[in-house]
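Hi all, a correction to my earlier message: I attached the wrong file for Sulfatase. Here's the right sequence:
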Amino acid sequence: MSHSTRSSQLPDTPRRTDPDTDSVSAADPDRVTGAAPESGPEPGTNADTGTETEPGAKPATGPESEPEPDTEADTSSEAGTDPDPGSADGPEQEAAGPAATPEPAQASSADSDSDPDLDSDPDSDSGSLTEASAQDEPKPEPGGKVPSAQAAPDDVPGPGTPEDGTAAARRSGGRVRTAWRTWRGAHPQASRALTVTTSVLAGVLVLFALLVPNQLDRLTVGAFFRIPAEGILITGLLLVMPPRPRRITAAVTGVVLGLLTVLKLIDMGFYSVLDRPFDLILDWILFSYAVEFLRESVGPTGTILAVVAVVVLVVALLVLMTLAVARLTRLLVSHRHVATRTTLILGTAWITCVTLGVQFADVPVASSMNAKLVQNRVDQVQAGIKDGRVFARQTATDTFADTPPDQLLTGLRGKDVLFTFIESYGRSAIEDPAMAKEVGTVLDNGSASLEKAGFSSRSGWLRSPIAGAGSWLAHSTFMSGLWVKNQQRYRTLTASDRMTLTSAFGRTKAWRTVGIVPGVRRAWPEGKFFGLDHIYDSEHLGYNGPYFSWTPVPDQFSLEAFERLEHGKKDRDPIMAEIILASSHNPWAPVARMTDWDDLGDGSVFHEIKKEGKDPKEVWKNPESVRTEYRHAIEYSLTSLVQYVERYGDEDTVLVFLGDHQPNPTVTGSNASRDVPVTIVAHDKKVLDKVSDWGWTDGLKPAEDAPRWRMDKFRDRFMTAYGPNPGSAAGTSAP
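and the right structure:
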């Protein structure tokens, strides 16, 4: 039913523009409270628009002529007079002739307890609906009769006539609104409770987005008792904007807040695993590694469910945040005076708290966290773009690039050199009070047993470029002498001709170079870059035992396979091997245990050993259990390596072993160092004499004050010490 048909039934009251609601309000207070008009409109005048109607037009009668609530009037009454919640939003009358007969107040019960945020949009442009309705008004027939809405041929499409999409959508929306008003009229208390609850939830969601930190250890009660500067600024902006820009700004704000919340949640995961925030430029590939880790830990079904849940959560968060901001914007405009005063008070309080440094639970009350977070990410993106060019230049600069092969590593000719990485073997394993005693005992006993077997050892510290995960970045940093801290640098490095420690051995033609990499389960084209003659991955070690969570092959078996496949062969050339021990990889449960070396066979013995282990899901319910199982895994890896050297080492054996990175913060706590132990073990004392000026600690356990170098400095120091001029100044300055 058009506004013009309805206008003939409503009083011709003066209308004014309320600057607080951007809508037209009734001047007659009786109309606001729902009282019946005393007189009808002047003849020939449209009460809503003030336009003239054609002479002789009569108002339509019957059920179809019942007027719809005046959206603009409802909004203005809510904003301007703030009526009692129990009062009706506006009058509804049935036309019985040229003059409308007022109904009792109960007649409008369908709109009692109505809420302007659900019925109307305070941002609606005044008069737009009236003008559109006037254009659609059916013209009077000769004699002054106006055809009913049902009789209009354009309203109902004929058989076989395609219905206009806009008209269908309008009719569908009208049916939904009518059904909502009907339900609300029948359940006024439930309607009011639903309205209040929805508004409260919208506010809670937006406050959560503004105040939630991006690190789990900062997720405290005090974090949510702060005044967000961004919320104050956005509120003030929305209050002064015109209707249409306000709607657009509210929608954009909702999407941005949703994306910011997603970023904070991702940061929580990165800080928990990698002890750093998510890099918007360089870290996207890590999601594929995370999916692979899930697949290998919980299986394909669990992985699919986890990925679907994450996608649904992200989409739901974006949609709900946008709807929440839109709802709160309508509330602000509907209660403009209160919202303006509150915004001014909060702004003053924020400035005061900043000036005085007010804190609650050791957290500053005045917050500008989101602005700082965005600024940090902008700086991060700019730095990431520049980093590629900087690293490419560093890759092209190599002190040993022009060194003749016959002058490389001359101090190790004839030796079997084993570079061995122990997964997640970090400084915390040696110095954390919860683990220091047990791990220290393993290292002290290992030093004694190796010394008894004729081996000497010296240890120091290296600072890894990463923590928690990303072992391949640490491996390439150690081997290349470059600081490989992200995937972009790794790709640049492996696409270059940079000489690594492993390729330097290969260039001399004096060693056979091999890799024992049980953590590799698919094609590894980067292996060629490291100059290895042969690579043994998890499928080529002869292992027929079970996985231990992520770990495909237990360390003891990997070392035994190396002995069987390469080191134990007779009449062979000297070997340079890169060996990755993966049993101490997250999640550290179940952990393998040592068994008799002669009983290893094809690894089937580990089926029973795995059954004795713990369920990782149970272990990870308690951080103390996680630390305990991590310690057990480190003890197992160290014991495997020490026993291997005791069992198979000889006078030509040179072992360099180190951790690749610290474990994740669940084990180390927040803000732990990135230091890892590094040790050189040799039977020939001349080997260790060449590094006597390094100042390292005797034994397998480095002293607390032992030298600490960046991991990328090791390559040049090592190649200088064992080159043609050992002990020269080149490359020996402390970082």
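Sorry for the mix-up. The first helix runs from residue 3 to 7.
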